[in-house]
Amino acid sequence: MAFFSFVVAPAAFSALPSQQLAGAVVSRALGALEIIGIVLGGVLILILSLSKERGKAALFELILLALMTISMLVSHFAVSNRLHEMRVQFGEIAKLAPSDPTRIAFDRLHQYSVWLMGFDIIVAIALIVILIKRNPSQ
User: Fold this and answer.
1) Is position 96 within any domain?
2) Which residues contact 59 (CB under 8 A, 6 or more apart)?
3) Given this model, what pLDDT does residue 62 score?
4) How is residue 78 annotated by DSSP?
5) pLDDT for 136 beyond 80
6) What is the C-alpha separation between 100 and 73, in angstroms, rounded?
7) 119 is a domain residue
8) CA atoms within 13 Å, Cβ hemisphere of 18
9) Can you give the pLDDT at residue 137?
10) What is the Cα–Cα distance from 22 to 61, expressed in whole angstroms?
């Protein structure tokens, strides 16, 4: 997710000749990343649910994984889906005036997408830290 956010998306927008092409590449890559997040989230929730780990720590990790997975579901099926529909319907969004209601709505949805991805990155880092602190010898 961090690689996508800090490398792939900026590279697409700087290397491709139009924002529409870059948006198409980023949308396609983001869609795949969201599906991977949903599937891995489900698998990790299942593994943790079936593990012998019990107690508050395991419950906390399970809640964090569930929140991350829900974030990916919302991102994929609500936010990214609507962004794609807007690109198809209105073409190159960047050509719309900043005051255009469609542009404002698009920019707002894009911000939601960034927040959802940022949330997942922060929670993933928190989970890594939790796991390292729990098993310092490994």
Assistant:
1) yes
2) none
3) 94
4) I
5) no
6) 28
7) yes
8) 8
9) 65
10) 36
Give the integer Cα–Cα distance in Å for 42 and 121: 17
Please give the structure tokens belonging to residue 40.
Answer: 């891995």
Instruction: Give the CA dihedral 125, 40, 74, 64, nearest 10 degrees.
Output: -40
Counted domains in the chain: 1
| Triad 83, 30, 22: Cα angle to 5° | 70
pLDDT tens per residue, range 119-130 = 999 999 999 998
- Torsion sign (Cα): 82, 71, 5, 76: negative
pLDDT given at position 98: 93
> Which of 41, 108, 27 lies closest to 72 in space, CA to CA?
41
Contact call for residues 61 and 130 (beta carbons, < 8 A): yes
Q: Which domain holds residue 25?
A: 18-134
Is residue 8 included in any domain, yes or no? no
Q: How far apart are the first and last CA of the chain?
A: 25
The answer to whether residue 11 sits within a structural domain is no
Structure tokens at 21: 């092409």
To which residue do tokens 């929670």 refer?
123
